[in-house]
Amino acid sequence: MRTYQVEPVILLGALVALVSAGALGVQAAPADLILTGGKIVTLAEAQPQVEALAIQGDRILAIGDQREIEKRWGGPETRIIDLKGRLTIPGFIEGHGHFLGLGDSLMILDLSGAANWSAVVRRVAEACAAAQPGVWIRGRGWHQDKWDETPQPAVEGLPVHRRLSELTPDNPVFLTHASGHASFVNARALERAGIDGATPNPPGGEILRDEDGAATGFLRESAQSLVRVAMGRSPGSKGTQDRRIRQAQLAARECLRHGVTSFHDAGSSFSDVDFLKKLAEEGRLPLRLWVMIRASYTELARRLEDSRLVGYADHRLTVRAIKLLLDGALGSRGAWLLEPYADAPDSVGLNLVSLESLRRIADLAARKDFQLCVHAIGDRANREALNVFEQTFLKYPRREDRRWRIEHAQHLHPDDIPRFGQLKIIASMQGVHCTSDGTWVPDRLGADRSRSGAYVWQDLSRSGALIVNGTDTPVERIDPIACFHASVTRRLSDGTLFYPEQRMGRMQALRSYTINAAQAAFEEDIKGSLEPGKLADIVVLSKDILTCPVKEIPKSKVDLTIIGGHIAFEREDPAGGSN
Length: 579
Description:
Blueprint: E1 4-5, H1 12-23, E2 33-41, E3 49-56, E4 59-64, H2 66-73, E5 79-82, E6 87-90, E7 92-97, H3 99-105, E8 109-110, H4 117-129, E9 137-142, E10 154-155, E11 158-159, H5 162-167, E12 173-177, E13 182-185, H6 187-193, E14 205-209, E15 215-221, H7 224-233, H8 241-257, E16 260-268, H9 270-281, E17 288-293, H10 297-307, E18 309-311, H11 312-315, E19 317-325, H12 355-368, E20 371-376, H13 379-395, E21 405-408, H14 417-423, E22 426-428, H15 431-437, H16 441-445, H17 447-453, H18 457-463, E23 467-468, H19 480-489, H20 506-512, H21 515-520, E24 538-541, E25 558-563, E26 566-570
Parallel strand pairs: 1-18, 2-5, 2-6, 7-16, 8-9, 9-12, 16-17, 17-19, 19-20, 20-21, 21-22, 22-23
Antiparallel strand pairs: 2-3, 3-4, 6-24, 10-11, 12-13, 13-15, 14-15, 24-25, 25-26
Helix pairs in contact: 3-8, 6-7, 10-12, 12-13, 14-18, 15-19
């Protein structure tokens, strides 16, 4: 077994040596970079707020008083940045997203701003008119519950493909739902996939049909794979190495300009991991990735041990977790519920992976000391995941600090909320999902279930659970400031507040995006707070999101993103003044 292991190190020895050198009158090496004159919120218990910070190499050298830092660590080659009072915080850690998926979303049609189905059809028709016949047209981001009108005709409030197919006769079309858990296709795509009235629903999926049994074009969960397979057979459709490189470049650029210095990638194949490893080795991974592997049990059993990477390539890549999808999304009615949907009384959603498969993978993760991260949105999926976690912990009691995670934990039964704290399960949630979805969540769950179990951040915190924040990009924009605002307000697009008693405090929200996310990845010793010896991953903001009026939070911009002591992004003409 080949394992690349770089243990998290706090440079205590180096700091002791520096202190000793000072006592002996020996001048220690000066800092490479000093940030001074700002409000530096460190999230360190000993010094929660300081005026200045010194960096040497890729590590934080010292924090403290402005004059002392400049006098003690300044040198002729030291670059000094005047923060001009701006808020400086640890780099944002995206707690759940899809790195290459983010890049891919920037290379296809963005349908997130479409006001209705007619607008979607127009955008796609324009793309087809500019494309060669036979070329697949892809888009993402539409959501029927955010349209200003219901399409006609409709099945379950969703369109049928007829109008789209009339305007796109020569090109197969594949349009992914905002959640990623459903897609809409045209007649040519259905034809390519061989889907007709006799095609059975695949396990864990559904081909939505009209009253005559004909496919409407909407494919729920695993039914999407029927078309993806056909798309993969098309000449030139397979992702080239150049395309993957472009995806990584675009994703990294978006992360850096939004202050994201580390990214929890929620489900990559072994092939993707091999690709990311190569980028890291070549110095072409400008931020830090912590990756969950998504694969079959057979493939996991064969490749898991050799895939383990911790702090690889200067802490650019860590692979020590497994991802599994137990259910779908609430928006597409694929979330697995204990009771039927309020707006679909004949459905409780979908179970995507059998509980036996979950148990086998949990057993494997426990034996190989990998974290297990289970996608669970509905209350039934969350309960079953907690049950399997508890059974596995009893079977393998050797290690208490496993830091297993439930990804999303969006809708919980009240009886299961205390179990997160009791079992030390991390709740990896997305603040912006609450405000993005809140206008229609009561339609799916009803008012009582929404109040008692939807996005219950404070109830989970009181249980002792660790809350991690993120955007689930490309489901939502990778914008930590927008997500921070959603977390502390729960304000919906119509101005109402979604059960505001569950709002996070501002420091609580900041911790969920920094030190909590580091802890969820076993990385709190090297990142998540600004302390001597930790990696110099830092963000400078144009506004103080911890104290400014709430309405001003979304106006804040990232002025500087620093990773490993190097400026990875600098905004032109920052609001706080020139650097």
